[in-house]
Specification:
Blueprint: H1 2-37, H2 41-61, H3 65-76, H4 78-85, H5 87-98, H6 112-132, E1 136-140, H7 147-150, E2 154-159, H8 162-168, E3 179-183, E4 186-192, H9 208-219, E5 223-227, E6 234-238, E7 241-244, H10 248-260, H11 268-280, H12 288-299
Parallel strand pairs: 1-3
Antiparallel strand pairs: 1-5, 2-4, 3-4, 5-6, 6-7
Amino acid sequence: MHGWQHKWTTADLLGFVHAGVDILVVAYLIYHLIMLAKGTRAWQIISGLLIFVLILWFSDWAHLTALNWLLKQMFLLGPVAIVILFYPELRHALEEVGRVGFWGKNFVGLEKEDVFVMVAELVRAASFLSDKKIGALVVLERETGLTEIIGTGTMLNAAISAELLETIFYPGCPLHDGAAIVRRDRIVAAGCTLPLSDNRDIGAMVHTRHKAALGMSEQSDALVLVVSEESGIISVAFEGKMVRGLRDEALRDRLMQGVMGRERPVSRRRRAKAQAAVKATVSPFTNLAPFLTASRGAQKQSAPAPPAGSDGPGTSPPA
């Protein structure tokens, strides 16, 4: 009797464990599905489907035979309709499942000090471009590979620096209309073409550069930095959402959070060390932006200036 009772207790405990694991897995999946759908067009469609199911139940309860029959016929087409209506969201969900980050692992390809140096250069470039109201679009590759996007631009494979970014997005540069792609701590390509967002809820007032940033963040886990050419406002797009009006510390913290995930921030001592390393770095592109500015001003002169005089730091465009 005692042995039988022991076996029953073990089976009962195993049943509770199996049921608990089953419930946790289902709850985890439902939670992530809700998080994926929240704030998107899929959330509105899900609300409509819930209303449809409630009406179907009510028609059956109230014995509304004709309405119930019609709704059941429509319900038979449900799987096909769901695939058609949720095609973009289903694709995005499958991409999320395929990413390591979906399961809670952050992509950290560099040491914290190196990441801070990279972010410091991005913040410095964004601040300069914002003050000058020069449009910019920088994509930080995370876990989703951007090889196809990189193939649409010009390969650079250069160390990231504020001066190089300022030169790339200078209006006279052939690459300024596209996006710069950052992989780890290097600018691998510039002048790249990004997919535009197909979200109809963003409104017609959003410009093409911001639509491209949202589209890139919707189709990948990339972090996208945008500088508005019209207003100089700095924004960051991530996971189909955009945060606007970021400057200095707020921008640095947002970029660090996006790149490092939930890792602890860099200490003040390490930050100062990284800043000193940035200041000590001499970039070969440091004088390119003044050179291009001077060249552009020289071209507007009534008499063309000789090539040797176009790179002088004192040359300025006419008033």
